[in-house]
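Q: Could you fold this chain for me?
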Amino acid sequence: MAPYEIKKKMYINDGARIDGKVVIITGCNRGVGKATAHELAKRGGKIYFACRNEEATLTAIDEIKDLTKNEQLYFLKLDLASFESIREFSRRFHELESRLDILINNAGALTNFQRTADGIEMNLATSYLGHFLLTNLLLDLLKVSSPSRIIMLSSNIYKAASLKKDNINSEISFPGPFKAYCNSKLCIIMFMRELSKRLEGTGVTVNALCPGSVDTGSITGFNSFVNFTLNTIKLFTDSTPEIGCQSTVLLAVEPSFSQVTGNYYSEFDKKDVSIKGEVDESWLWEKSVELTKLNE
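A: Sure. Below is the predicted structure, expressed as structure tokens.
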């Protein structure tokens, strides 16, 4: 048995059920997000697939319904690169549901430089700021459903990040797609840590994780040579989505994690976080409120 599978057997209760629990997963029509949705559907969750591509998502839903016999799987359109779409998603979800037990911020993107209609650099928008706004708009439902859980997908490549206050949104220069992606993954971890402090005593837990080297479909927009190089590397380094989703499943369903909050995990192990750069967590929070116009 491989070391990862041994850890899985050690930590995950295969019998843990989430019947009656309402779940949102962003970006879950492929890759590790789809594998996560499959695992949680097997355990009885009522799952909202928060995705941009309706056709691909409905296909994924039909596949998972056939495999799990769980009919409580729903598509609700969400474009994390659009603050208008995020606010509309929140409005619609509040109309449909009075509770939210598990929020999994799974979606992300690694792309060349472009700005959203809101003026946000795309890597920052899709991987971090979109989730910052979404999570805050759903906090009321998470609080009334406590004990509830927020799970954020980051990556160990956050260690290559370097955040600068005057260039957080590529105001001065674009650091390149890889560095921008690394920066967004560090922002996720800092968001998790700050949010966990702000939610103390509410019964809502917040944790982040690295799913490992898994093909999530988040690498887009590069020329053919770069895509060929990245895909060749993935042949030798990638785990499968079915393995990569297991840390997310652990944090979502394992009863012993119901009170665990403010931690970062990689391959089931809690990891210390080393943050480099000019930005601290409280400053990032206030800047994120400003950029997303959260309070308007």
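A (continued): The two ends are 53 Å apart (CA to CA).
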